[in-house]
Specification:
Rossmann fold, alpha/beta, four-stranded parallel beta sheet, about 325 residues, 3 domains, cytoplasm, 12 strands
Length: about 325
């Protein structure tokens, strides 16, 4: 057993030793470790699978492991439990929530349903299990346009992200959208002025932007897409430089995919940049180790919530 001082910074040697021990424990316990692209590099490196929300939802629904250790924010862990209720789902840091997900409650959705009874409720996957349970279908940034375009209803209640909602609305003009005014603070607060400044510094660079960003930032982009879509664009486009406006954790995967390119994130790469998710980065290697070792921080949801929330997630997976 490794003895840890959780709060102190680990040396390179300690990181490697801890990673080996986590891998050993995972094999011993038949556990799968899932990590979002926004996780710390050393956490991504011990994951069996790294992906965006859609990819991780699919992986969670397909695993035959007994334990799922989910390195992501709370709504992601809840989604893993919803699609795989018989598995033990562990969250290395239960305090890692999502500010956007907390901007809407189930009661808010029910009020919208009462006001617009003919509308379908489209819930971004960045929502709590309780909100999913009163929604018609879930979407991710990777599949939102595709899923919404397939819905029969001409009126859409889109929750909770206003940026993604407006991006989808732009691509599906024949539907009426009622859009909740939630947002992702790191993405939405980054400004067009800052992007233009980066373009001045790097005039030959392409700009790839996440659809959670402000519409004025999106207007400047050469490409708009989810984290997985940005990876594909940034590593295959004809430019050797790409300005990437999303969470800086994505840099780790981009460097692995195509180390010959230069990827420019806001304010350099020292995790002090603007597009930085504090709750994602709150999951550390020692927390993953302790959680797997002791099998603590299990995600528990009421059975009725699991049953109701599973329907919009399954519908999303079918439509996408």
């Amino acid at each position: 057993m490794v003895k840890l001082e959780v709060e102190r910074e680990l040396s390179h040697k300690e990181i490697k030793e801890l990673q080996e021990e986590i891998r050993r424990l995972a094999e011993e316990k038949n556990a799968v470790i899932l990590a979002h692209y926004y996780q710390r590099p050393e956490v991504q490196d011990i994951a069996h699978f790294v992906g965006d929300s859609l990819e991780l939802s699919r992986k969670a629904s397909q695993t035959d492991a007994d334990i799922i250790v989910f390195c992501g924010v709370r709504f992601m862990c809840e989604t893993a439990k919803i699609v795989n209720p018989t598995k033990k789902v562990l969250h290395p840091n239960p305090e890692s929530g999502c500010p956007m997900a907390d901007m809407i409650k189930a009661e808010d959705v029910l009020r919208l349903r009462e006001k617009y009874p003919d509308a379908e409720v489209v819930a971004y996957v960045n929502t709590t299990a309780e909100v999913k349970a009163v929604s018609d279908v879930c979407v991710t940034s990777a599949n939102a346009i595709k899923v919404v375009s397939k819905l029969e209803s001409k009126r859409i209640i889109f929750i909770p992200d206003q940026a993604l909602g407006n991006w989808v609305k732009k691509h599906i003009p024949d539907k009426e959208f009622i859009i909740w005014q939630g947002f992702c603070p790191p993405h939405f607060e980054f400004t067009a002025r800052e992007v233009l400044k980066l373009k001045e510094i790097y005039p030959d660079a392409k700009v790839a932007v996440h659809p959670e960003c402000h519409p004025k930032v999106i207007e400047i982009a050469d490409f708009v897409g989810s984290t997985s879509q940005i990876i594909n664009y940034a590593t295959t486009c004809d430019s050797n430089r790409v300005i990437v406006i999303t969470e800086v954790g994505l840099l780790h995967t981009l460097k692995k995919k195509n180390p010959n390119k230069e990827y420019i994130f806001p304010q350099s790469m020292n995790y002090c940049g603007t597009v930085y998710c504090c709750t994602m980065k709150a999951i550390t290697l020692p927390k993953v180790y302790e959680t797997l070792l002791k099998e603590t921080n299990e995600v528990v949801l009421p059975e009725d919530i699991i049953q109701r929330a599973r329907k919009p997630i399954e519908r999303m997976l079918e439509l996408s």
